[in-house]
Amino acid sequence: MKYHQIDRALFIKNRAKFMAQMKPNSVAVFNSNDIYPVSADSTLPFAQHRDIFYLSGVDQEESILLLFPDAPYENQREMLFLKETSAHIAVWEGEKLTKERAFEVSGIKTVYWLQDFEKILNEMMTYSDIMYINTNEHYRASVETETREARFIKWWKAKYPAHQVAKSNPILQRIRSVKETEEIDLIQNACNITELGYRRLLSFVKPNVTEYEIEAELVHEFIRNRSKGFAYTPIIASGNNANVLHYIENNQQCKAGDLVLLDVAAEYANYSSDMTRMIPVSGRFTDRQKEVYNAVLRVKNEATKMLTPGTLWKQYHVEVGKVMTSELLGLKLIDKADVQNENPEWPAYKKYFMHGTSHHMGLDTHDYGLLHEPMKANMVFTVEPGIYIPAEGFGIRLEDNVVVQEKGEPFNLMRNIPIEVEEIESLMNS
Hints:
This protein is α+β, with helices and mostly antiparallel strands.
């Protein structure tokens, strides 16, 4: 891996938090992701399942983690199962984790080769009553491909029908949403790498540059700073492209006088950052662009202050909607009659700001978090309001990543990334 090794103390803490919430006499199993085929012998780059990474630090395919806090013997309470390196694999792919190296990474002392898994699982099943299965219950999940985890669950249910079934996801949704200090540091590092890429662009963007050239500059800076690359598919949207929320073609020329929306960010050690900034292609905002930009910035700043312990996600978005309504009235994009006659299910402001303001962030860009439960300190959120005006040929979105504090305003992990109009113009013209 490109990133520096993470202290295994983090994964030891994470496992302890998960096992503390397991039911008595229960087993939990977590699988790595598959390597997905493209065609012929081509595959997509491997991306580890975030749950097994969160609990073990293992960043390798064909790995299994088994947790059994009430096992009769201490060496059965945490077990890793890994693919053993053969002579062929060593030559063609390089060595996989050894048992000793797996302990260094994870803090798990009991490590077996994968071929021993079914035999050892069968023994654990004779001792236990409940099996935790790891289904994907994220509110945005839409999975059509059968995953390695899904295949395991199907096999396990057929082989052990007498056992009770419990779900690991509700536990993970809670514990993964509240970050440890080490995790916040990793996200901060991802944000710092994102900053380097963004600053690189401020002297690069000029009229007639293409969106894909901007993408190339970013990925160059990200990789040279130990990132695998983008935390998510980059959105580099010039002119009216910015009014397509998930525009990812990135194939147009940036024209003089236009703005380019950059919803781009680096990952680091599987942790995401998530930034949106606006750059004036010619180095200066027009008066109208600046007026709308500053309205969005004010909404972002006000929304950020609302992210405090005890806040409910749904009510938060209602309050942000009120701030946005005020700004849209000031911009004369809506009037008082629009507000008085609005549909409560789709308020007037939604014509120009149709998406949510914040989501959890961490190992996944849209990270785990139970939206019906109050916010807590050390949760990490994006703050990303926008105003989209197709009739005027531009849209504006601004986004930072912040950490909820015990008291006071959140801590902005992107505090050093230029966002004020004057600073952006100064840097682009220096």
